[in-house]
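Me: I hope this is not a bother. Any chance you could explain this protein sequence and its structure tokens? It all follows right here:
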Amino acid sequence: MAHEVLFKPIKVGPVEIKNRLALAPTNTNYSDNHLVGDQTLSWYTTLAKGGLGLLVFEATPVSSEAAETSIYNIHHFWGPEHVPGMRRLVESVHSHGAKIFIQLSPGLGIQAAKRGSGVIPKAPSRVNFRMQAENMPESILKWFAGNPNMVMELEGEMAEELTEEEIERRISAYAQACILAVNTGFDGVEIHSPHGYLVHDFLSPRYNKRTDAYGGSLENRMRFLLRIISAAKEVIESRIALGARLSIDERNEDGIHFDEMRQVAMASAKAGLDYLSVSDGCYEQAKYFAPDEDGTMLEGAMGFKDVIDVPVMTPGLHNPDHAAAAIEDGKTDIVGLSRPVIADPEWANKVQNGEADRIRRCVRCNHCIFCLFNSRAVRCTVNRQNGQERFNLNRLLK
């Protein structure tokens, strides 16, 4: 199948992207004590050199409050110490003709700490998450079974309810991080709002039991997200792109579902988003955001596209034929890649050069996710160079 459609430029807000292929935001645990170091720089540069038009930098907390977690070695972005590495990263990605957005997080919500960690998460309400084995990808369960020294955390600490004053601080910190993103040279900001993290927690009746202006009706449950969009848009203006990532359906019976999420998408686009990035499920329903088949999120993406007039990015399309068909048929505007480019950073170049048959294919073993769940740096079973890119840094930066 011809893949030319994947390499047509697209405008996202004020930003022109050279093709329809993007790195979906992927936390890696590659940071050097929460700073951009050689491994982070090398991995993102490798992907930019590999032909992706857009890289969305992983979920990054906007304040020390937002970063409270015992789970991941994530990057931080709020102080002057965080800027030099990020600026070097932006310059390197730009040197290979790609654009780079940063996914900024106002907090990790109920998923900010494992049970027994002693870190008490802040969330809309006093709720905790409980992962059930039957809702995890089967491959993850196999990895845990084969690694008895690894502990699978199925339950998190009980959260403390955010006060309205704390909510105001989160929104203010978000706006300040957006200013920092503009000044650092990022081409866009993506609001981290899927998968049961803090913004999603506010949207979900399962996680949000509040009785004030931030709870109850969907209008109230959307308030936190819409205020973040408003605060971000006020400082960003039209200088860089602004988007958000949303789960099309939480997949918990008492959670937020597709019909309400379409209303969230409409309200978010009306509030000023330049694009929408979709995902699915949450950590209690992890099998949905790491699907075993191509195209599982396209129906939801189309449902969003029907009600908004900004570009939609959709992941879960490993096969370049399926990716091209999705664009050609108008089911999505941009294809988000994560596991496929972990397995083969040259995925985009190989497709563009007519060498799709040479792609080192992701086998969906989910070892990368298994590493992340266990606070380890991401690694790949089919790409042994993954996580070792820093040893090629001098060559990458030439």
Q: What stands out?
A: The longest helix spans residues 164-184. The mean pLDDT is 94.
